[in-house]
């Protein structure tokens, strides 16, 4: 019987991670199963990395502890704590020119509380979380498969979540202990804001016997804001700082989407919404904005209901086939 490997990929996008959390919650309700049991590999970058790790965090009984709806609540209830800054810091940072926009203690306290003592090796399904090492100038991937094989690559989940979401200009880089040395890591979005291709490569390496791949990729919203060339031609380094980050993240995600649509040997589903200017900031935690993000995700679920139902059936069908073969 053909072996199909099920892959879930979640984009980065700050508080807009609420969008994929709501969509994945719908998938859990349709299947009656947690995300970690529906997929053989879950990849996530930045906020998507937090989701990937959270959805695979084991509870006391070894089963996934958090349903996707609980992850959605993380943004709605803890977003203001993650993206919190004093008036003095706002003045001192000069619009993120002098230092990062937000102090690290907010996001670190939330992640430490949320993940507790959970470690990467204990993930309920394989997890892949990109980051970037700025001292060695190389991509760095948190991989649960490697964590199970090498103690020096087994990190606390909260540290992996902190590293992959250390977005330049928003949060300071994180120093992750590595024996007598350390890794100097920033947001994985600078190399793979949409980690779906990274996930496919990882799945191929981990499962050389696989005959097919089912890829579900969930975005955090396409930003429709345009940059007028007449304005951009007058920008200097200071004016380019925030736009260039947005362009890198959006361009990376769109490129991966294009690449996967061209591959004929993978079944590919992409779920994405469009966000108007004013509702697309990565750090806008106002209740009305969060409500709008949830409503956008719910609307997408209604629009793509037939595809979601079919996908739910296919995911559970693969899972049931595995159980019969193992029996």
Helix content: 40-55%
The low-pLDDT segments are 86-99
Residue-averaged pLDDT:
90
The count of strands amounts to 10
Q: How many angstroms separate the termini?
A: 15 Å
How large is the share of residues in beta strands? Answer: 15-25%
Which structural class do you get from the secondary structure elements? Answer: alpha/beta
List the total number of helices. 14
Globally, the shape reads: globular
What is the string of SSEs from the N terminus onward?
A: EHHEHHHHEEHHEEHHEEHHEEHH
- Main beta sheet strand tally, sense and closure: 8 strands, mixed
Quaternary organization: single chain
Radius of gyration: 19 Å
Set down the secondary structure blueprint.
Elements: E1 4-10, H1 18-31, H2 35-38, E2 41-44, H3 47-56, H4 68-82, H5 87-93, H6 104-115, E3 126-133, E4 138-143, H7 144-149, H8 157-164, E5 174-178, E6 181-187, H9 189-192, H10 196-206, E7 212-218, E8 222-223, H11 229-232, H12 237-262, E9 266-271, E10 274-275, H13 287-303, H14 305-326
Parallel strand pairs: 1-2, 1-7, 2-3, 7-9, 8-10
Antiparallel strand pairs: 3-4, 3-6, 5-6
Helix pairs in contact: 1-4, 1-13, 1-14, 3-8, 6-8
